[in-house]
Specification:
By secondary structure, the protein is α+β, with helices and mostly antiparallel strands. It is about 35% helix and about 25% strand. It is built from 10 helices and 16 strands. The protein has helices spanning about 50-65, 80-85, 95-110, 175-185, 235-240, 245-270, 285, 310-325, 340-365, 375-380, and strands at about 10-15, 15-20, 35, 40, 70-75, 115-125, 130-135, 150-155, 160-165, 170, 190, 195-200, 200-215, 215-230, 295-300, 335. Strands 5, 6, 7, 10, 13, 14, 15 and 16 form an 8-stranded mixed sheet that branches. The protein has a two-stranded antiparallel ribbon with strand order 1-4. α1 packs across α3 and α3 (about 95-110) packs antiparallel against α4 (about 175-185). The chain is elongated.
């Protein structure tokens, strides 16, 4: 659980196991204890810096090299997911997204001598199974039901496209943080019995990176880093929700159920017992299709509550995280040729060759073309004006003025 701010050392136990002692009267399990194995476990003293260094920074460096990356927080409501992703007003407690922006631009400064980079960001939320743009103009002035919806579709190459998405280019950490805070201000939150500012939607902050080598600008490496703050699962019968919050909880739990279905299907596919993966069952799994079993380096942060009353939900989170840790993705560098820039360069080279050819042909047909006598050239190079005389350029007739070859 990285949800509680702390000044502790934040040490992470690599490849650690987590054991739960089940009380006899608990309905969480009929076993006396349950153990789960993970790639790393943070205790309650973990600080934001240690979580970033262990989980996010290696993925960020891979994205700069051209790999896709995803980091998402999963867990029940009020377990610390939003705190892990965005942090709070304290600088020391800033979350993964601000730290990724800061580390990204610091790293790009060290690499800009050899590579030209551009960075763009987007920020979307999935609320009641509808996708909305948190960066669109005027979103905070009208109810969310009146916001224009983002349409999700596949193009002719089966790549996912989002129509109506705002993509903002940012040139530094401050610009990136301004965009982040704008989206956070527009996000849907409500007060629930477990959380005074409960996220009522899934949010995906995406950083798109494009790099061009200065030696070969028509070859482009591109990547995207998804930073996902999932809305928390909720036990409706425990929280006594009603009205709009009950409807929100239904959509949240259903989308998380579909997410878990995709994880299970990917496990079955790895065993050879299944071929179809139900990505299209929800907006969340459609957008995160590459992150789940595709071309992406994905890290999952399972936020767990240490309160005994949340034991059932905590064990459910641990089961989900263990399923995720067993998945393997097909990761590769995203590199392509910018055909438009390549064609422009080849057209320019063609024009230059035509001009040079015309110059050489004219010179071959007229021996006096572009000829200046050695005597005149010597005078131009060695004659110095006196102190009281301004330098003058000898007149050149139009027949002597030759074009300069490109």
């Amino acid at each position: 659980d990285s949800g509680s701010p702390s000044n502790g050392s934040g040490a992470c136990s690599p490849a650690a196991s987590l054991t739960f002692e089940i009380p006899p009267a608990s309905t969480a399990s009929n076993q006396a204890s349950l153990s789960f194995s993970f790639h790393g476990v943070f205790d309650e003293s973990a600080n934001q810096s240690s979580v970033f260094e262990r989980v996010a920074y290696p993925v960020l460096l891979s994205c700069i090299e051209g790999y896709n990356g995803t980091i998402f927080c999963y867990g029940q409501t009020a377990s610390g997911k939003t705190h892990t992703m965005t942090g709070d007003a304290s600088f020391d407690n800033r979350g993964l997204i601000p730290r990724c922006l800061e580390a990204l631009f610091d790293e790009l400064k060290n690499r800009q001598q050899n590579t030209l980079y551009s960075v763009s960001v987007s920020f979307i939320e999935i609320y009641n199974e509808n996708c909305y743009d948190l960066l669109a103009e005027g979103q905070g002035q009208v109810p969310i039901e009146q916001w224009p919806k983002i349409n999700c579709f596949e193009d002719e190459t089966a790549n996912l496209r989002l129509r109506g998405l705002t993509l903002r280019e940012v040139g530094g950490t401050r610009e990136g943080l301004d965009v982040l805070f704008l989206g956070i201000a527009n996000r849907m939150v409500s007060t629930t019995p477990m959380n005074e500012a409960s996220s009522r939607s899934h949010c995906i902050f995406t950083i798109a990176i494009e790099g061009r080598s200065r030696d070969n600008e028509h070859v482009v490496r591109y990547s995207k880093l998804h930073l996902v703050d999932l809305a928390g699962s909720e036990r409706v019968h425990k929280m006594g929700l009603g009205g709009a919050m009950l409807n929100e909880a239904k959509y949240i739990n259903l989308s998380l159920h579909f997410l878990e279905q995709v994880i299970v299907a990917l496990q079955d596919k790895a065993k050879g017992s299944r071929s179809h993966i139900p990505y299209r069952n929800s907006m969340l799994t459609s957008i995160l299709r590459d992150s789940l079993g595709g071309n992406c380096k994905t890290n999952v942060i399972a936020n767990m509550s240490v309160d005994m009353s949340c034991l059932e939900e905590t064990i459910s989170t641990a089961r989900f995280a263990q399923r995720c840790s067993a998945l393997s993705n097909d990761v590769r560098i995203n590199e392509t040729v910018d055909l438009r820039r390549l064609v422009d360069r080849l057209m320019q080279e063609n024009q230059d060759l035509k001009a040079e050819n015309a110059y050489l042909r004219a010179r071959a047909e007229d021996p006096n073309f572009n000829t200046i006598s050695n005597t005149d050239a010597d005078k131009d190079n060695h004659t110095q004006p006196s102190n009281n005389q301004k330098p003058t350029q000898p007149p050149v007739s139009s027949s002597e003025a030759a074009p300069i070859p490109p």
